[in-house]
Amino acid sequence: MNVESKIQNPESKIIYNYLLSGGDLLAVSHFSPDGDAIGSLIAFSGMLDQLGVEHLTAIADVLPEKYSFLPGFDRIRKFDIQDSTFKIPCNRLVILDAGALPRIGSARSCIGKGTKVLNIDHHYSGPCYGDINIITHEASATAEILYDLCEEFSIEITEQIAYGLFVGILTDTGRFRFSNTSSKALAICADLISKGVNPGWVTENVYYNLQFENVQALARALSTIECHLDGLICIVSLDREKDVNDTEGFVEYASSITGVALAAFIREIEDKVYKISLRSRCSVDVAEVAAKFGGGGHLKAAGFRYLGAKEDLIKNLVDELAWNITAHKITRGSKFIERTALQPDDEHIEF
Ligand SMILES: [Mn+2]
Questions:
Q1: What is the span of the domain harbouring residue 97?
Q2: Residue 8, Cβ neighbours under 10 Å: how many?
Q3: Do 53 and 179 belong together in one domain?
Q4: Separation of 107 CA from ligand 1 center, angstroms?
Q5: Which of 192, 207, 222 is a domain's end point?
Q6: Same domain, 126 and 226
């Protein structure tokens, strides 16, 4: 029996036929790529290899070095319109993990009249911008959707595919702590480990391989730590610096202090322009708080930009956070930490 006739899901059959339909194929993911963007792209590339489909993979951005340990990482190119390797427009464009078309940046220029777009994603925000769309909200990561496709297409999970998928799920679940950490996500990871993934090695590379400059920046940020309203609000900030390129997770030092209900990390990105990340561990919706400052996000993780003096920003922000805490009757010592936390996925907060 051939593979196609074994595929149960009609949606998967369409994808299978699309992939084997011929013509050039470019697979891309979103700019500011995270572990799921890079891992999914590497895994998908390995899947296409096995299907015998010639293809290119690219991202229209700088690739973070910390993922360079992944087998197959070198095959991802930086997308460049000037680069004649890329066919513009292309026949087929596969877009992974991008909730909206602008998220692929300049790779959009590959889309012409005849281009067939396949969109594979798990974000809520996503309008179905592809000609074919496979949007699975329940999936913890795009990598999880690709794992299912491997099964359906009888694709053998090679080392490259296994590591790509594992990194996608590991990072999109925040190391298995966000609410999308499902039994299915863990079962897939268990299977990937049985296929040779070394989870400790992955975690070391992704999370414990920090640039010295970034740790120094963390030290400076933490030295600014201030608490308000009986320790319920905690704020850290970092003034503008050249060498710092990764402040991911800084806000979590403020939000993980015992007794803190709302936390903020303020980073100066240009002279007197600030990017603020908010976190809630209580019933206060920080997306609403962010919206008052012109930003947005999720219930538990949101953000906004601010132009002006830092002192004014801190005063206005603390006032707003304090007002919310009081409105929600949260006091020091009350058990406010909620059992379910939404996925703090900064990457997809547009503000
Ligand atoms: Mn993702």
A1: 3-207
A2: 8
A3: yes
A4: 18
A5: 207
A6: no
Beta bridge partners of 276: 266, 304
Cα-to-centroid distance, 43 and ligand 1 (Å) = 13
220 and 244 part of one domain = yes
The residue ranking higher by pLDDT, 334 or 349, is 334
Instruction: Give the Å distance between the CA of 175 and the centre of ligand 1.
Output: 13
- Order the strands of the 262-270 sheet from edge to edge: 226-228, 233-238, 262-270, 273-280, 301-307, 296-297
Where a domain ends, among 151, 175, 207?
207
How close is the Cα of 138 to the center of ligand 1, in Å?
A: 12
pLDDT digits (tens, 9 = 90+) for 123-152: 866 568 999 999 998 999 999 999 999 999
Tokens of 27: 């697979």
CATH number at residue 167: 3.90.1640.10
Residue 209 Cα to ligand 1 middle (Å): 22
71 C-alpha vs ligand 1 centroid, how far in Å?
A: 19
CA 252 to ligand 1 centroid distance, Å: 20
Query: Do 46 and 154 fall into the same domain?
Result: yes
Same domain membership, residue 168 and residue 239? no
- Please give the distance, rounded to the nearest whole angstrom, from the Cα atom of residue 97 to the centre of ligand 1: 5
Note whether 110 and 88 are within 8 A (CB): yes
| Residue 273 confidence (pLDDT) above 60 | yes
Residues forming beta bridges with residue 307, ordered by sequence position:
273
How many structural domains comprise the chain? 2
pLDDT at 342 over 60: no
Rounded to the nearest angstrom, the distance between the alpha carbon of 122 and the centre of ligand 1 is 7
Same domain, 270 and 190: no
